[in-house]
Specification:
With about 200 residues, the chain is of the alpha+beta class. Helix content is about 30%, strand content about 30%. It has a single domain, classed as Gcn5-related N-acetyltransferase (GNAT) (Aminopeptidase, 3-Layer(aba) Sandwich), CATH 3.40.630.
Length: about 200
């Protein structure tokens, strides 16, 4: 699933683009201010992994390498040039599967403004149209009401509970699985979001 990278996408004031080295200060500032708010939903490692980036620059390099290899699409979310969060397409698979999953987080000060649903819709439309993927998944902790609202706004189907699915906040956590296929959104996720 190699594609063209870098890719930048836009919808109104929302710009989705790869993080750059010069975004490091803004990224660290947002992460520091939101540490307590994000902690319950943050992926953690069950055991040390020497391949995990230890600096922002290393994270950017690794993310871009994964994108160029067609395994992921790691976007920063920007509002009028201000960094406010991330939306990442991961687990991209081609061949007869043609699927991916999407994860996201946003600065608490920008939450509830429709930025994340719009970002997921824009990225999802790119996955369906440019990458010709067939299915998109979002996996959410059942306690994360804000994230559940994103899946609901976009009309993702609830496919049930995945027990101890991801290591989050220091333990294996259950996740509710949601999915949508290209046939379910022939006019795209952005169209659905605007017209529902």
């Amino acid at each position: 699933m190699r594609g063209t990278w870098p890719v930048s996408l836009r919808a109104g004031d929302v710009v989705l683009r790869p993080l750059r080295f010069r975004d490091g200060r803004a990224w660290h500032d947002v992460r520091r201010r939101n540490a307590d708010w994000l902690q319950p939903w943050e992926a953690t490692l069950p055991q040390p992994d020497p391949g995990t980036p230890t600096t922002f620059a290393a994270m950017v390099r690794q993310s871009n390498a994964q994108a160029r290899a067609g395994r992921a699409l790691p976007f920063g979310i920007f509002m009028r040039d201000a960094f406010v969060g991330q939306v990442t397409v991961g687990g991209i698979a081609g061949s007869s599967l043609r699927t991916c999953h999407i994860g996201y987080w946003i600065d608490q000060g920008h939450a509830g403004r429709g930025i994340v649903p719009l970002s997921v819709a824009v990225v999802g439309d790119y996955c369906f149209s440019a990458l010709h993927l067939h299915r998109i998944e979002i996996n959410i902790r059942p306690e994360n009401s804000a994230s559940l609202a994103v899946a609901a706004k976009l009309g993702f189907r609830d496919e049930g509970l995945r027990l101890r699915y991801l290591h989050i906040d220091g333990d294996w956590r259950d996740h509710q699985a949601f999915a949508i296929t290209a046939e379910e959104r022939p006019d795209g996720l952005q169209h659905w979001l605007r017209h529902r």
